[in-house]
Specification:
single chain, Rossmann fold, five-stranded parallel β-sheet, 5 helices, globular
């Protein structure tokens, strides 16, 4: 958070209710949120809008067609690194280890407490 602008958080989750609730939560703590229903939709936006650069990406691990780990790998191709937080309903140790080894800031199990999510996000923004 170098500037005075609100941090922009991209939420990528195929569950519309998760996207809506996280967007409301982020707006309540003075952050901008943009939601995407798939990894492809998010990456298309990154590729076609050069000015779109979120400060952090919240990625669901399990999504149809392209899961969060694949999205994270593809993000590595972009010039500027982006902090990544994974969220999942499945707490699979192997996936968590893989995500964290690939550079993710955190791996949260759904449902999570709002205050834990915000604290984790604030830490990610400091590191990003």
């Amino acid at each position: 958070m170098m500037s005075q602008e609100k941090p922009l958080i991209a939420v990528v989750d195929d569950d519309a209710s998760v996207c809506r609730s996280l967007k409301r939560l982020l707006q309540a703590v003075a952050m901008e949120a943009e939601t995407f229903s798939s990894g492809k939709e998010f990456l298309d936006r990154m590729e076609t809008v050069p000015t779109f650069h979120p400060d952090c990406v919240v990625l669901d691990v399990h999504m149809p067609a392209m899961g969060g780990l694949e999205v994270q790998q593809r993000l590595a191709a972009f010039a500027e690194p982006i902090a990544v937080i994974f969220i999942t309903a499945h707490d699979e140790e192997k996936l968590r280890d893989q995500a964290l080894k690939s550079g993710a800031i955190a791996f949260l199990h759904k449902p999570f407490e709002d205050h834990l999510f915000i604290r984790t996000l604030e830490e990610a923004l400091k590191k990003g």
